[in-house]
Structure formats: structure tokens, C-alpha cells
């Protein structure tokens, strides 16, 4: 896989505009607890928060720092659907639990915004809606199918025509599409840090720079080892997703090999003028279109437009990214032209072969998951709630549990994965084979 470490470690926009976060200690002793959560991202912290509300005292182990992975470095769009996995397919494969999972997805954006309010997390939250414009007339038909599928399941979504799309976007480059008022956008680093603060307030112990190096079964429980300590626990949750092999490839090999971590780049413009702000996405919705090589936009609280892109090759990455994304802005919003960018950064996205997220029972009182496929923000908060319910053992969870399915020839697939972008760019120009975006 291409190593874009420069951008994965770059100061993001969110780093620059967020207040200094609390520094948590590293684990340097041997302790015991009822639940250990490996991974201090949104799923891990949401699980810890919901467990703490049930009376547990979870321990969170983060390999680097809270928000240093994709949870604090993503675009910040809060989207109440998955990228490709459609509700009918989910329910066809997983039955009754699949129906519960589609309900979870449907309500996931609302749940995130409500949790932020309940926990007083100041994260620049704007529930202004999410719009998925169709980039061709043929893809508009697929959008109608998707809108109908979610509307039948109670989602408050609706179709916008080309004229309404122009009014929402300030651009005539799209043909209409699906609009869902429950979506929006946040500062993901503030949100992740706020989750950690809420967890600590309820008694959760958080350890940073404490990567888990080994998991062992011991008696009726588990031992999680780090470089300088270990924890005995009864229950365990692996919530590392796209960063599962950052520190070791042997922690949970089957989970690690079930996904391909891809690098996603984010670019932020300098703040727009008031005139441009009023003509481009005037009501500040989150926007991501129907392309496989996704085009997406949203404002931050300082009126920067934030978009992103992907690359096949790393050579001269910064200038190429500015050129690619700059041309997209200029084409979509001619009054804006090619903007100046103030920040470029990246993070890893966990991609599964079937574009489904997958949830696992890895052993007695041991759970895990992988495969956000670029939709881990809203989804992650609700996933964390469900894992807390699973660990507590009371009630039917809305996650279809299964065994990890390692990808055949995983090392080769990882190396070749970035080249799939060329295929998606070609496919974006083709007429969809069916109305179903999942096919």
C-alpha cells in the first residue's frame, strides 16, 4: 500500500481550530477492569460512554492519541446512509437483525447530534441536512430508487429535481438527488475529544500511547498486553478498524486481513467571501455525490469549504491534489474559480470488499468490527451503543454478528487497491447497470 505518512501526520484543519485537548497518561502498570476497549476512536469511545452509563468502568487503550486516527481527521460529514450497502440487500442477507441494522443506519445522524447536545459536546455541529446529488441523468434514476428504499423504512428523505439542486448547491453540474434533513456536519476532532471528556466524567479510564501488542485468553477472562503494562478483564472490544495493523499485524490477524486501509485526503480552502458564501451551498448542507471517485463539499464554522480526493500514485501528491480538487471546485462553482488551500491532510479508511461494515464475535465476551467504508462518523456512534448492549448482555442488538472473512491474497490486494480508483473514474462515466446503487 502507498505510504502517505507525511499527510497522515500533517496538521489538519481540525488540529488548528480546536482547543488544546487533554493529554491522557500511558499505561505503565498492571491493572484489572471489567471491560477493555482497544481503540480510542468514535466506536471505542461511544462504547465506553454507553457502558459507563450502564454502571461499568471501561478502560480505553489508544495506540497514539485521542482523535489522531480517522475519527478526528475525517471530513466531518454526518451521513445517515452507507456508501453502497442498500437497505434491501442488508435485510435480504441478515433477516430480522438486518432490519434492526437498517433502522440504526436510518437514525444514526439524529443520534449523533442528540448525543452531542445531551453531553454538551461543543463540536461546531450543524444539522443542516445531507444531499447526495446525481452526477448524471442515469444516476438520478438510481438516486430515486435509493430515496424510495429509505423512505419506505421511515427516513425523512426526499428527491430534489435539477432546479432544486441548483438552488441548494449554487451549481448546475448535478441533476437532482436525494436529500435527508437529519444529516449535516461537525468538527470531528472536537467531537471525538468531547466523547473522551464525557467518558472520563463517568469514570472511564483512558490511556494514550498505549498500543495493545497481544491479546490472550486467561481463565474466564482476557489479558491485554502493552509495551509497559497489561490489563486483566472480563470483556473485550477491538475497535481499531483501518488502524488495526498500525502497531502490530498480529493482534487480530483475521480482522486485519478482512479490510483494506485506504488513504483519504482532505483539503480546506481559505475562508470564502460573504458574497461567495451566499451563492455556494447557501444553507450549508453537507454534500457528497453519487460518484465512486466521490466529490464532496461542506463548510466549517469559519466558512472554509472542505473537500477531498484520492490518488493512485504518491509522486508530487500535494500539487496534484490541489490541481485535481481545485479544478473540481472551479467547474462546480465558476464564480469561485480555483481556490487557495490552507490545509491538506489525510487519514485511513477501512474498506471491505463488499462495501458492508462487519461485526464480529471473536471469542467469549470478545467483540470487534471493521469496514466503515467512509461512513464511520454517524455510524460509529450508534455502533458503539450496540456493542455496549452486547457486552451488557441485555436486549437484542442491531448488529449482524459473523466471523471475520480474510481477503484472499491480502498483501497483494493492499498494494493494488489504490489503482481501483482508475476503475471507479471509468465507471462513473458509464450508465449504471441497474437502478440499484448497490450493484
Textual characterization of the structure:
35% of the residues lie in helices and 22% in strands. The strands form three sheets. Strands 1, 2, 8, 9, 10, 11, 17, 18 and 19 form a nine-stranded mixed β-sheet that branches. The chain has an eight-stranded mixed β-sheet with strand order 5-6-4-13-14-15-12-16, with helices on both faces. It has helices at 5-8, 13-17, 42-53, 70-73, 87-118, 137-151, 162-169, 188-201, 253-256, 274-279, 317-332, 376-392, 410-416, 420-427; strands at 30-38, 59-61, 77-78, 130-133, 158-160, 177-180, 184-185, 205-207, 214-218, 221-225, 230-238, 260-269, 286-288, 296-299, 305-309, 341-351, 358-363, 366-370, 401-402. It has one domain (5-17, 24-427): FAD/NAD(P)-binding domain (3-Layer(bba) Sandwich), CATH 3.50.50.60. It has 439 residues and is α/β, with parallel strands linked by helices. The chain is globular, with a radius of gyration of 21 Å. 52% of the residues are buried.
What is the number of beta strands? 19
CATH architecture: 3-Layer(bba) Sandwich
CATH class: Alpha Beta
Helix content: 25-40%
CATH topology: FAD/NAD(P)-binding domain
Question: What are the key terms here?
Answer:
439 residues, alpha/beta, FAD/NAD(P)-binding domain, 9-stranded mixed beta sheet, 8-stranded mixed beta sheet
Topology:
Layout: H1 5-8, H2 13-17, E1 30-38, H3 42-53, E2 59-61, H4 70-73, E3 77-78, H5 87-118, E4 130-133, H6 137-151, E5 158-160, H7 162-169, E6 177-180, E7 184-185, H8 188-201, E8 205-207, E9 214-218, E10 221-225, E11 230-238, H9 253-256, E12 260-269, H10 274-279, E13 286-288, E14 296-299, E15 305-309, H11 317-332, E16 341-351, E17 358-363, E18 366-370, H12 376-392, E19 401-402, H13 410-416, H14 420-427
Amino acid at each position: 500500500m502507498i505510504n502517505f505518512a507525511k499527510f497522515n501526520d500533517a496538521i489538519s484543519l481540525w488540529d488548528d481550530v480546536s482547543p488544546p485537548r487533554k493529554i491522557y497518561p500511558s499505561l505503565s502498570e498492571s491493572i484489572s477492569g471489567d471491560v477493555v476497549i482497544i481503540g480510542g476512536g468514535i466506536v471505542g469511545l461511544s462504547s465506553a460512554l454507553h457502558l459507563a452509563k450502564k454502571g461499568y468502568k471501561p478502560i480505553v487503550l489508544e495506540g497514539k492519541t485521542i482523535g489522531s486516527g480517522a475519527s478526528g481527521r475525517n471530513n466531518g460529514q454526518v451521513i445517515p446512509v452507507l456508501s453502497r450497502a442498500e437497505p434491501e440487500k442488508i435485510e435480504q442477507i441478515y433477516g430480522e437483525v438486518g432490519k434492526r441494522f437498517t433502522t440504526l443506519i436510518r437514525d444514526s445522524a439524529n443520534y449523533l447530534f442528540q448525543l452531542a447536545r445531551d453531553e454538551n459536546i461543543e463540536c461546531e455541529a450543524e444539522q443542516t441536512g445531507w444531499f447526495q446529488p446525481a452526477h448524471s441523468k442515469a444516476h438520478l434514476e438510481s438516486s430515486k430508487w435509493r430515496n424510495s428504499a429509505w423512505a419506505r423504512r421511515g427516513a425523512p428523505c426526499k428527491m430534489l429535481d435539477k432546479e432544486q439542486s441548483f438552488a441548494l448547491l449554487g451549481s448546475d453540474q448535478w441533476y437532482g438527488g436525494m436529500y435527508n434533513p437529519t444529516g449535516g456536519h461537525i468538527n470531528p476532532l472536537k467531537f471525538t475529544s468531547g466523547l473522551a471528556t464525557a467518558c472520563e466524567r463517568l469514570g472511564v479510564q483512558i490511556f494514550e500511547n498505549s498500543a495493545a501488542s497481544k491479546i490472550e485468553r486467561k481463565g474466564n477472562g482476557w489479558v491485554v498486553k502493552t509495551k509497559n503494562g497489561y490489563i486483566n478483564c472480563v470483556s473485550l472490544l477491538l475497535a481499531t478498524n483501518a488502524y488495526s495493523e498500525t502497531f502490530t499485524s498480529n493482534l487480530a490477524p483475521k480482522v486485519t486481513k478482512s479490510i483494506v486501509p485506504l488513504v483519504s485526503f482532505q483539503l480546506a480552502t481559505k475562508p470564502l467571501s460573504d458574497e461567495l458564501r451566499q451563492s455556494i451551498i447557501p444553507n450549508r448542507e453537507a454534500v457528497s455525490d453519487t460518484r465512486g471517485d466521490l466529490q464532496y463539499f461542506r463548510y466549517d464554522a469559519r466558512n472554509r469549504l472542505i473537500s477531498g480526493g484520492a490518488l493512485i500514485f504518491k509522486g508530487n501528491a500535494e500539487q496534484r491534489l490541489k490541481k485535481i480538487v481545485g479544478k473540481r471546485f472551479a467547474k462546480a462553482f465558476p464564480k469561485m474559480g480555483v481556490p487557495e488551500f490552507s490545509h491538506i491532510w489525510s487519514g485511513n479508511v477501512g474498506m471491505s470488499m463488499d462495501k458492508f461494515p462487519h461485526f464480529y464475535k471473536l471469542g467469549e465476551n470478545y467483540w470487534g468490527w471493521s469496514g466503515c467504508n467512509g461512513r464511520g462518523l454517524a455510524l460509529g456512534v450508534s455502533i458503539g451503543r450496540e456493542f455496549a448492549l452486547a457486552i451488557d448482555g441485555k436486549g437484542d442488538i442491531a448488529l449482524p454478528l459473523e466471523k471475520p472473512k480474510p481477503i484472499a491474497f491480502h498483501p497483494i490486494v493492499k498494494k493494488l487497491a489504490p489503482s481501483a480508483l482508475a476503475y471507479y473514474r471509468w465507471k462513473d462515466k458509464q450508465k449504471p447497470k441497474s437502478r440499484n446503487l448497490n450493484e
